[in-house]
Write a structure and sequence with these properties.
It is a single chain. The protein is an alpha+beta fold and 40 residues long. The chain has helices at 12-19, 27-39; strands spanning 3-5, 24-26. Helices cover 52% and strands 15% of the residues. The chain has a two-stranded parallel sheet with strand order 1-2.
Length: 40
């Protein structure tokens, strides 16, 4: 499971959670990933 970080929070939270071993993505990055996945 991946946590989705709300766009109102700093993207730095993604790094903090990832360094703690928690898979996370920031909303803006998540939207980009989803667009790239649909193009493939």
């Amino acid at each position: 499971m991946k946590l989705l970080i709300d766009m109102n929070l700093s993207p730095r939270w993604t790094d903090i959670l990832t360094s703690a071993g928690i898979e996370a993505a920031h909303c803006l990055n998540w939207a980009r990933m989803m667009r790239q996945t649909r193009k493939s």
